[in-house]
Amino acid sequence: MSDKRFALGIDYGTNSVRALIVDISTGEEVGTFVHNYIRGKDGIILDDTDANFARQDPHDYVEGLQASVTSAVREASSAPDFSVDKIIGIGVDTTGSTPIPVDAKGVPLAFSDEFKDNPNAFAWLWKDHTSHQEAEIITQKAHEWTTDYTKYSGGIYSSEWFLAKVFHLANVDPAVYNAAASFVEHCDWMPALLCGNTNPKTILRSRCASGHKAMWNAEWGGLPSQEFLSSVSPKLDGLSAKLYTDTYTSDTKVGGLCAEWAAKLGLPEGTAVAVGAFDAHFGAVGAGIKPGSLVKIMGTSTCDMMVAPELHAQIKGICGQVDGSIVPGMIGLEAGQSAVGDIFAWYRDQVRWGVDNLLQSDLSDRTDLSERAKANALPLLTERASSLKPGQSGLLALDWWNGNRTVLVDVNLTGMILGLTLGTKPEEIFMALVEATAYGGRVIMERIEEYGVEVNEVVTCGGLAEKNPFLMQIYADVTGRPMKVSRSAQTCALGSAMFGAVVGGAYAKVEEAQEKMGGLKDVVYTPKPENVKVYNRLFALYRKLHDSFGTKDYAENLYPVMKELLDLKRKSLSN
Amino acid sequence: MSDKRFALGIDYGTNSVRALIVDISTGEEVGTFVHNYIRGKDGIILDDTDANFARQDPHDYVEGLQASVTSAVREASSAPDFSVDKIIGIGVDTTGSTPIPVDAKGVPLAFSDEFKDNPNAFAWLWKDHTSHQEAEIITQKAHEWTTDYTKYSGGIYSSEWFLAKVFHLANVDPAVYNAAASFVEHCDWMPALLCGNTNPKTILRSRCASGHKAMWNAEWGGLPSQEFLSSVSPKLDGLSAKLYTDTYTSDTKVGGLCAEWAAKLGLPEGTAVAVGAFDAHFGAVGAGIKPGSLVKIMGTSTCDMMVAPELHAQIKGICGQVDGSIVPGMIGLEAGQSAVGDIFAWYRDQVRWGVDNLLQSDLSDRTDLSERAKANALPLLTERASSLKPGQSGLLALDWWNGNRTVLVDVNLTGMILGLTLGTKPEEIFMALVEATAYGGRVIMERIEEYGVEVNEVVTCGGLAEKNPFLMQIYADVTGRPMKVSRSAQTCALGSAMFGAVVGGAYAKVEEAQEKMGGLKDVVYTPKPENVKVYNRLFALYRKLHDSFGTKDYAENLYPVMKELLDLKRKSLSN
User: For residues A55-75, b (16+ Cβ closer than 10 Å) or e, as one string?
Assistant: First the structure.
């Protein structure tokens, strides 16, 4: 037993960072710790006057690294046969695109006296949307360019992405822009920091981050050309020189843990560190992604990930198709729904609104009730909705509360609920929202298959997959496919650890690490034929609405929609 | 001053009956009383197993007559110059179609020992929908018949109406059907009772009730023929002989108050009693309806009433067009929205759901909070919505929570909310619901004007008009028309009193009674030009959805709808 070895996965989320220590031969999780960021609101620096604004102070990243890893190590230390010298490799994933302006040594400008109070010098969190105008300009220019640089990212450049953010910085804060020697993705900066060399000229850039969010592609020799960037704006003259040409997959070793961070973390100097990537991509690896498996990471939003040995055509509306972004050597496909759990949280806040707003004078001394109502809302809605049959509510919703990421790639779409009557109950609306997200997921699957990539199994992970059997059964019934669930509840950190094991030399390929370290839970949500039948009819109606409101080329009389819903409702109630 | 004269109006609503005593030269209301029915749930006999079921025990009508009138007289007695002998006439309105099966003397079968516990022998309240299958058969047969008897009632015979209910009775309870010598509308039975002769052979039938709800029309010599009824079902053989040929407008005197009821009410024997009619029609009279005036009676639903000297064509989708049904000598037009206040009440129950459902264990001893939350909900939503600008929410709703009565005449339509985002707040949804009902009202106005009936003014009455300035301003802004408000808060009872004054001989025509006894409040809600502009754009989007989901002949790509809403939202927020 004394030959056990371990890997460390570090997973930077939106509000916290998690460290996970895993036995590389079994995947057993021997130590974990979550550190919540301490700055801003739940780690996010907001601007009260601009809802699009979301930054993070990189101090949280640095402090969180030490806090999470040392605590995870402490926990692991009680496991038999664990010792820190048995950790052979480290992987890191982060949110993205989350670029950080850095100086010539790769130190975040946020750490300088000059810019320490200027959020434009901080990390631009993935969900910062301040750059929407710049994104539109980049999209427009890319479409006009001899090479359409958006062709591997769904035809649209998003305000969430690297170059739009850099461009917006150039527009709104030239002082910071000009002071920056480079812009580094959060997932690139962390491994570099661990290895003690953040020089932006030599830092290893993630294929995943660059391919999905910066239009990097080998087809055109890397990033979009300086000519292109200058055509977007003369303010971007010289930007190429601040950036890079090469990118790396995460089976590449950045280097060994430097003395300083070895000391801070209590780990051996020289421990191998892998090239970083985005959380969803490592999450897919941790969940066991392989050709034919669709991995759904289901939380506030979803990521729907696949890998394919090769692609015969670009799949319309799939945001990212990047060689090696998930599993090295295969094309990584990234799709997703921009709001899923967020929609349920929105509805939770609707139904508990009365508690906070209608009884102020009566309950001013009972502030605990607000939290109680919040905690009770979704469980109660779920419990009551569980006794409803498909079609019974007569409702149909479009799941576009935060736009539509895949397959319409359009932030300017909004949510809809149809079929409301004077008898409609909250649990019926809740169920319709769950169903709508399932329909959205089915659209993604069908689009992928249309282009010849077969979906042979669906593996789910994330909070909703772990905690909501009601939702999972609806997903199975709506898609007509069994829903499997990843064994680990922390697949992102596990995927990081798998790459740590690869660069640590234990495995030649990440597929081997997946084989040893991953797995599924016993539970499988199996489609119920009688429900599948009803949902096929409902999905056909969803498609009508989806195409009519979501595409420019579809006109159909929608008169039958409400009629069919009422017909399904009557049939459901008479069964 | 001693030559003052008064009239008595009696208004039977869904849950109560109101008596009102009015000075006929000024309209001053000197005595009023509301008696709540004591049987069933708020006066309605329900069937737990059938949501369509709604009956009333005619005992409530009889007891309520005495209770309300004697109390109104008592209040009036403290007014200067009032005495009961100065009451010159009585008018009565009721809900409808509310038919009552009666014996050969016109006594309700519900009063017999045999049927006193059988709700099929009771009054079939207007909102009883148990007859929907029969209504479909009647509609179908009418369309096939040489004369389309539905041509003056919107092309559809409703489950709420007289003949459908009689037919359903024949189907479900032949004993009651066969025992009935006739079927009498509630509004016909009350005046007959007051005059001491309820013989169904001689009872004066209301033009309003018969024309709007029983397909009576002079064009085909009265009710649909026995041949037609027999073609609907052989069970209806012989029905014509139980019914009637002639109908009467409410300027016709039924007779004088009989000795028995004079004694019960404390009024002079022989006081003139007018032919009855439906509440909304008398309400329109009480609100001052005249050619060019649209009267909106705004409560749980709306009735939109007009009169016109003549009509050049049937107005498509306007449910009723009957000569003399509102003002004798003019065509009465009846349109309406099947849910307005009911939609707001539904939403009130959504936002207060959390209070009743999320905190049971915490607040089991505070049952008062449920009522408190109920009372606070709409005022708070209104207050918060008042600071929103048109278009700011990005929302658009279709007001079909209870189907669409005018102009689509389709119960199989349902409500919809579009434009939802993660930031959508309850007060925004509430405002969108109010706006949707205003758009629905505008559709009615535009349809009427399309057919050459000009709407020169809008006079509103009813609970919403009295109590909700926020809603009234939106109606003015959405329609681009000033919203006037009837002076009386009880226009139905006032309209009844006006007809009482006519049959009492004080006025030759009801128009003269309106002139003296009616009037407007000082408040007028005037359209704000900047809001009208935004609402014109929103209404155009509403029309797109209305026609796409509500009609069979309209197909349009709806892609621009969400985009335009977001554009209006951005513009509204940047102003």
Answer: bbbbbbbbbbbebbbbbbbeb
